[in-house]
Amino acid sequence: MRVVMFGYQTWGHRTLQALLDSEHDVVLVVTHPKSEHVYEKIWSDSVADLAEEHGVPVLLRNRPDDDELFTRLKEADPDIIVANNWRTWLPPRVFNLPRHGTLNVHDSLLPKYAGFSPLIWALINGESEVGVTAHMMNDELDAGDIVRQEAVPVGPKDTATDLFHRTVDLIAPVTVGALDLIAAGQREFVRQDRSQASFFHKRSVEDSRIDWTWSAEELDRLVRAQSEPYPSAFTFHRGRRIEVLAAFVSQGRYGGTPGRVFYREGDGVVIVAGADARTGRNHGLAITRVRTEDGRELPAAEYFTTMGGYLTARP
């Protein structure tokens, strides 16, 4: 099939590479210009560079709503558009243009975690598995019929970076497998159960701020979700920002006020956590490694030289 590809960052790069390696013919690539957004500088393999290396025409667009782009799409005469990590809305005149419509590749197990940063949100929320879904695009965000979907488990110590590497390897088999079904003439796919749908916004600095009323289990997942190269989870100690680089859920249960710097447990310094911490039924978050405002990384036991005082959400 003749394929036009819309995509960005490493997700788009992997998708384009899979298409180039397949029997399908990539006739045009549309991608975004480079961005300075903190999350868009991560996993930033260039779709444009890969296309140019293979002699595929490239168009750079922030939004695909101009007449010139639409003319180029019609001239390309695609059988299908394949999109992955396209960051803005595709209008119906674009996604309905090809003979077989548009296949969108999304890194979640739809209908859950439509929208942005699905791996991070899924890890924070304690999901047992994550994955990649190829679905037909329609007027709703990430809502079309599912053509192919594959999942991988989430381990108890996994970081968002671990899950990225595990799911990005699913892009090629999910994308090419879906295209092969469509090329073979299949037109009926799995309808999404919209009662199970959830939608998530882009991550920002505010979303990495630690709220000590969360449970220790939730905070442990937040720290792992905001692992390098993502911006780290952060808090304030004596008015100064510190980033929490590593932590674990304490074995002991600690009562008191959320955010209290309380006790040394193993290699960690336990912080009281949970909205109901006063009951003494909660585990704490044992921080093991931090980064200070001046960029120094050190064990928490060296940073917290005395117990007492509080970690807070704001200075």
TrEMBL record:
Domain of life of the source: Bacteria
Protein name: Methionyl-tRNA formyltransferase
InterPro entries associated with the record: Formyl_trans_C, Formyl_transf_N, Formyl_transf_N_sf, Formyl_transferase-like_C_sf
Domain Formyl transferase C-terminal span(s) in chain numbering: 205-305
Ranges for domain Formyl transferase N-terminal: 1-169
Lineage: Bacteria, Bacillati, Actinomycetota, Actinomycetes, Kitasatosporales
Pfam families according to UniProt: Formyl_trans_C (PF02911), Formyl_trans_N (PF00551)
Species of the source: Streptomyces virginiae
